Amino acid sequence: MVGVDFGTLSGRAVVVRVHDGAELGSAVHEYTHRVIETELPGSGVRLGPDWALQSPQDWIDVLRTAVPEAVAAAGVAPEQVIGIGTDFTACTVLPTTADGTPLCSETPAEPHAWPKLWKHHAAQPHADRINDLAARRGESWLPRYGGRISSEWEFAKALQVLEEAPDVYARAERWIEAADWIIWQLTGVESRNICTAGYKGVFQDGRYPSEEFLAALDPRFAGFAAKLATGQVGDQAGGVTLAPLGGLAGRLTARAAGWTGLPQGAAVAVGNVDAHVTAAAADAVRPGQMVAIMGTSTCHIMPSDQLAEVPGMCGVVQDGIVPGLWGYEAGQSAVGDIFAWFVDSFGADGHEQLTSLAEKQAVGQHGLVALDWFGGNRSVLVDHNLSGVIVGQTLATRPEDVYRALIESTAYGARMIVETFEKSGVPVEEFVVAGGLLKNPFLMQVYADVLRRPLSAIGSDQGPALGSAVHAAVAAGAYPSIEEAAGAMGKRTEAAYVPDQARADAYDRLYAEYRRLHDFFGDGNMLHTLRAIRNEAHP
Amino acid sequence: MVGVDFGTLSGRAVVVRVHDGAELGSAVHEYTHRVIETELPGSGVRLGPDWALQSPQDWIDVLRTAVPEAVAAAGVAPEQVIGIGTDFTACTVLPTTADGTPLCSETPAEPHAWPKLWKHHAAQPHADRINDLAARRGESWLPRYGGRISSEWEFAKALQVLEEAPDVYARAERWIEAADWIIWQLTGVESRNICTAGYKGVFQDGRYPSEEFLAALDPRFAGFAAKLATGQVGDQAGGVTLAPLGGLAGRLTARAAGWTGLPQGAAVAVGNVDAHVTAAAADAVRPGQMVAIMGTSTCHIMPSDQLAEVPGMCGVVQDGIVPGLWGYEAGQSAVGDIFAWFVDSFGADGHEQLTSLAEKQAVGQHGLVALDWFGGNRSVLVDHNLSGVIVGQTLATRPEDVYRALIESTAYGARMIVETFEKSGVPVEEFVVAGGLLKNPFLMQVYADVLRRPLSAIGSDQGPALGSAVHAAVAAGAYPSIEEAAGAMGKRTEAAYVPDQARADAYDRLYAEYRRLHDFFGDGNMLHTLRAIRNEAHP
């Protein structure tokens, strides 16, 4: 099996043995254009603030370079590869023609013709309008997203295109997630996966938002869902059928076989999202297994047999992680980013030195508590205009004290999310960690102590690519379900970190103070005022 | 005139021309023993935490070295010097025999025999007991100190001696401020000045705290006031008479003339405190002239013809700054100390670079507001267990943003003090700045904008020593009053910094947020909890 993870700056391919998930070889391709944020390649056309684009050519280059290199590194014959699975950042979305040609290949000097990367944030005004209108109309899908959709998602980004570049909008016969576009390139067949349709496309209870709703946003937007609705797998009259996760999207075309060096006709799995597919890599796809992918930010993914409207979650989608279960997503806007910010701007020492000093301390010895809102709050407040707070500093406070307090603040934020799920009737049975922050054992121990529960740890440092290979194994028919494939190929160490009773008790006292700060600052009265003053003052 | 300023680490002498205050020459003597914090000189006896002592020999050395050097530097004949004035840190206090011999010269291996420097903070439990008892008994003097006396003051330090070293307490025939002890050495005559007696000795309405009160603290403490009460200037039967500021304490003895090289018989002014005497140096001794001596901390000194119980002031003392007026004192525990702490621990750049970056910003552009309680809050909350808070940080926050927010926070703290005085019926007519922070014009402009009033600036960088010379001129009869001497010799630039209307308006919005933080955190619920957790956790 080959799994391919399309990230923000690069794509990674990994070759995985079907029967036990052993990772035999991998390769990385750095995108030539990286993130396009200031000007368009070739034309040099300038982009506005908060724009972030990618080039489809970079994605194809991953198929052409990283995949064959990974196969070579694994030392297996290409013919032994029976399937390929992929995952992508999301919502990364692009306009294409009816045959899948990206509009940016036709009009490369038009910014709106390019794929909008997940972190393109220039559609906030459009998201605000969508949210306001949905709340006013009481749209039934809104509570499935914690009461607010993101500016990163399909409808907000498309509305921006419509209003700022109506000609591009008109030419866009398709508005498609890169997760699905790459599958189209591999198979020659268009499909739409349940995961991105649900989490990023606001697809709920068998439908997209209604024409009436869209028309109320902008009359020209009324028919927008038609650009999304071409589910090739089992289209039903009058409805939309999406492709199930772990399903077979199609077979590798001759052209794609030429790019990848893999056998024509190999199974290609339905597209998926990096965070969601990681659950399979961690063998954590059963109800109540919350997988926290902890890196610059943290994404929480959890299947459940309970449907509930959890305040501040990013979304709940039927079959959104594995078929047959509700899939929940929540998140913390900034985690590793906070530590990096502190080290880069305020720490003479690096992460290792600060960690080494911080871990010697007893719980609470620094006298500090912080709110982890330096990048806003995704869950449970869903408010990107919040900001960070550090409380309790004295003239004796040292950088390692603040560093430790910042680590702890993100653990309190995680506990707030877990508790909110449980209070809403969605039990969290196991907390499973994946992602880059696993490399800091001190940080992991803080999380175990703060959460008062054992942490499981994924057994791979290329979780998304491994997860994509698991999905490919299901699509190829090697396993009957994601659960069984994950059980055989996924890697998880249970109780990799176990809470210490005394430290956990000490953290309870600090967490109580965190909650008081959460209540006081969470209404945004003060932090929104500071943000507004800041924005008015900026030259 | 010679003015001598006895500081924390050194003593400074300055020679000043009587008719216009011109500073003709000065010299500094660094104390050999500096601050004695860990072990006693000679014996090596270890000291406990929060101890801080000084050596009387260092003070005498200032008279022997700095005074003749200043006279030589001024190029004046010693015979031309007609008077000498001094000021001291306070409450710096020592036990002596009836002839003024410091007990530490008899038993140098006994810690409690040494002078306790103002920042000796090991008597906090004793201060707490004094405050609790005084509040329970409704002692009339307590509101004169904002409702709480400090652990730094005479009674707390003496109670510590009594209970920890009763033999030292018994041998101490006198318990005397260094401000008065140095006058005793110069004149051979014991006196007690109104200023330290009132601000540090809790002398109010003609008496010290009652025997009943002292006995209730500890029966052995009942007669303590007798160790303070030997006012040589005009002792009255059954009462205590203190020496008025600007008064003539006595004449220079032959021995002191030998030390200083000054003429025997020269006038010696009554002792005084560094902050209070600075008012004279700034020619700011009229009602409503608030002098802020801004350095590592800030001390606010203001004469007034109004008596009021201002919440959180450090003290109000009749004739405490100049005869005939009430003298108010308030303070901010840490000001320059906060900026130094930040630069030393969190700033790759120094003060100048951070100031240069910060001053380019518009008001509020950093999006931050901070509470300036990194060293506790002296006024208006009188709570040393409070700590600092920084609100509004994002991943884009830079060190210069925090640096500016910290400067602003101290300006908000100053505004809170000014407003509290005015709300209590004590008008603040003019805000006059003295001290080391005057060297930062950006910081001064922030204060002008935040306070919404022009700032006056002292015209000397050796304010205390100049102020002592002004007092000496009065004591020598060159002027009939401190007011007139200050008018001729003091130096003040009015409206050295003028508020900008637009910036002042912008700061009003941020100050409103500061006040909300002040309300939320000022009750100490959270910050005391964090402090308690910290203290329990400390290994």
Automatic annotation (TrEMBL), chains A, B:
Domain of life: Bacteria
CDD domains assigned to the protein according to its UniProt record, in alphabetical order: ASKHA_NBD_FGGY_L-RBK
Domain Carbohydrate kinase FGGY C-terminal: 291-476
GO biological process entries: L-arabinose catabolic process to D-xylulose 5-phosphate
Keywords tagged on the record: Arabinose catabolism, ATP-binding, Carbohydrate metabolism, Kinase, Nucleotide-binding, Transferase
Molecular function per GO: ATP binding; D-ribulokinase activity; ribulokinase activity
Carbohydrate kinase FGGY N-terminal domain location: 1-200
Pfam families: FGGY_C, FGGY_N
Family: Belongs to the ribulokinase family.
Protein name: Ribulokinase
Source organism: Nonomuraea longispora
Gene: araB
